[in-house]
Amino acid sequence: MNHYDNLLNLSCDTTIKTEKDGYYTFAETVFYGEKGGMPGDKGTINGLEVIDLKWEDDVLYHKVDGTLQNPIHMEVDKETRIINTTVQSAYHLLDGYYGKMGLYIVAIGVTSPENQWYEVNSKDLDEKHLQEVQDFMNDTLLQDIPTEFTYYKGSEYPNPKYANHDEVRVVTFGDIDSQPCGTPHVNNVNQIGSFIILGSEKTSRGTRIYTTVSWATNIKLKKYYNLIQELRKILNAKEDDILENIQTLRNTNKIYKKQIEELQKELTAYKVKDILQMKANVLVDVVDVSQLRTVSQALLNQVSSTKILITSSDDINDFSIISPEGKARDIYAAIEESLEASGGGSPKIVTARSSKPKQEIIELLQKSI
């Protein structure tokens, strides 16, 4: 575990201890697998990519894209380690901050550099509180506060829930926070570099606060910068005009949507008028499948006896049974099994689908009415 006491201890030479089902353990390791709310490391072993890390009790198993043999040289990806570690240490500082307020962090999310958040067990946290937290972190990260790692025998540690542990590692940041933790941490709070609160939202447990920490901010900033540049190109607008242009597009879209709805109503009315002039009770391919339901509903109020519409697309036959007499379900029940159909509806309209040949469907439906 002592490898985890140095943020930049990212490589080591070691030997294979065991191998089972493609997973290796080693005499020592600098890798950290997902545990304790912290994502796992990335990196290579003998130049092969590490594709999985898993813990069994306190033993870390490593899987690489290939086969390993001694001697072993490990290299942990620096960017991933720093991103994962700095947010972990930052949230320890916040544990101490909230603890002094009588609050506590109930959950954290650090699944990726673009998704870093913590939740506090209070819904009464406003913008003033967020600014106070930001000020606390700004001041703390300017200080020279070294991290202390202290090891105890589990049986000697004051908290009895750790009695069965061989060893308990306590991570301490000055007088701000001290707690048992087995994950990697920074060696000084000033290694965290930066901490920014992005926003918050209320949850069932309290308040979720979104943050970006250290090198994760670099990734997020570059992503948003590229997004803004792409929007500028698409909208042919200056950066300050992007929001206005998007709002204009939204308003224009609403107008077009309304116009399309009116055109669809006109098209439906035209189709219904056309169908009413047809004497057959079973009509084939007179409407597109996308119009089948809408036209059927419009027809219901204009026909006096049962009509059936069938439309085909890619060897699938969709059909609608329109029955002002309320017999649609009965008709469908009579042919459902034979056609291996799937569908449903009301006594007056049933829509369904079958992959049986079109002619077979036509004949069965004609017989049913």
TrEMBL record:
Recorded GO MF terms: aminoacyl-tRNA deacylase activity; aminoacyl-tRNA ligase activity; ATP binding; metal ion binding
Q: Name one GO biological process term.
A: tRNA aminoacylation
Question: Where does this protein have coiled-coil stretches?
Answer: 221-273
Which Pfam family would be a valid example here? Answer: tRNA_SAD
Q: Does the keyword Metal-binding apply?
A: yes
What InterPro entries does the annotation carry? Alanyl-tRNA_Editing_Enzymes (IPR051335), Thr/Ala-tRNA-synth_IIc_edit (IPR018163), Transl_B-barrel_sf (IPR009000), tRNA_SAD (IPR012947)
Which Gene3D superfamilies does this one have?
2.40.30.130, Threonyl-trna Synthetase, Chain A, domain 2 (3.30.980.10)
Any keyword Ligase? yes
In Swiss-Prot or TrEMBL terms, this protein is called Threonine/alanine tRNA ligase second additional domain protein
Per UniProt, the keywords (alphabetical) are: Coiled coil, Ligase, Metal-binding, Zinc
SMART domains in the record, alphabetically?
A: tRNA_SAD (SM00863)
| Cofactor(s) listed | Zn(2+)
Domain called Threonyl/alanyl tRNA synthetase SAD: residue spans = 168-210
What PANTHER family does the annotation carry? ALANYL-TRNA EDITING PROTEIN, ALANYL-TRNA EDITING PROTEIN AARSD1
